[in-house]
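Comment thread on ticket #2218

A.B. wrote:
> Attaching the input chain for the structure job we discussed in standup.
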Amino acid sequence: MINLAYKDIKYSLLKFIVTAMGVGMLFGIVLIMIGVYRGMVTDAQVMLDDIGADLWIVQEDTLGPFAESSRIHEDLKNTLKAQSAIDKTAAMAFLNLQVETPGGVMKRVYSVGYDPHGEICAINPKRLVEGRVLQKSHYEMVTSYKLGFKPGDKIRMGRNVYTVVGVTKGAVSSGGDPVIYVSLKDAQELQFLYSNARIRNDRARGLNVQADNHLVNAVVATLKPGYDVNKAADSIRRWKHLGVFTGEEQRELLTKNVIETASKQIGMFTVILIAVAIIIVALIIYTMTLEKMKEISIMKLVGLPNGAILKMIVQETMVMGILAFIFGNLFAHAIWDKFPKRVVLLTSDAWGLFGVVVAASVLSSLFAVYKAIKADPRSAIG
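C.D. wrote:
> Ran it. Output below, let me know if you need it in another format.
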């Protein structure tokens, strides 16, 4: 039996393929938008995975340094060591900074300060692509490859000049900014030390306020084997009057509270793009049906049943949807690594989009089907 859809597509093959490619770019952008959201979730967990802490101890009644301002005393890391459940502790300072790259461009970075001689290293050795980790308490820095620095380069921040000793790849903050690592003492100076002008102004006002350089934003801890993380957290909350988050609670906080608004916005864009793609497919199929209304009338006049005509329209729509999905995948995989932030393309998301494309194709063909049913056979000879 002759396949009418095949004959019609073959007759206008180039036009059909170009149209499918255009719709496919829309589906590709949908995949990219989903990938951007997946990338945000991945970025939010990178630092947590690198540090590998079981507990995050922060200022009481705050959500920690990634969501709110948090300041606690550095020596709490020693106090917490007295807890029977605690194995290792480390004080850390976090700060957003602007750094001038070798090309003279100012870029936003996220600074992580930790003790190079401490028990917990914030740098994941697997992410180190050049140089080494920090070994001195002052004036060394490990930077991100995105900034363009090489080991041995000098970077001025605040009052001091830092030497790049290592370069990492893939280390980002929850917002996707590249991460730089400095010693805890340097991070405390950058965040808590007043400038000389501020000190002179305070003295002129009759104030003798000294900055406390022994503050940190959080203390992280790992537990000894066999101890329950929730019980250990409750004990610290009860006796030390501090805010404590387990690793899982911190992960949930980052993926839900911190990036919640951005994820909703991306979701809205994705829904709008899918709706636009469905409407475009519907208009294209409807227009293609209008263009061959005389041929449809002739087929009806010679006795071809409505079912065969409707089958032709649905098949054409399905073929266009599948081709658009293939082109969309190719387009998304061709450009995903050009985006400034991480894009994660998952097979499960692609198959989910494929289901949406199939359903949308069937739905889009209904308008054309209705028009074909209403075609008058007499118009073929009138």
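A.B. wrote:
> Thanks. Noting for the ticket: The chain has eleven helices and twelve strands.
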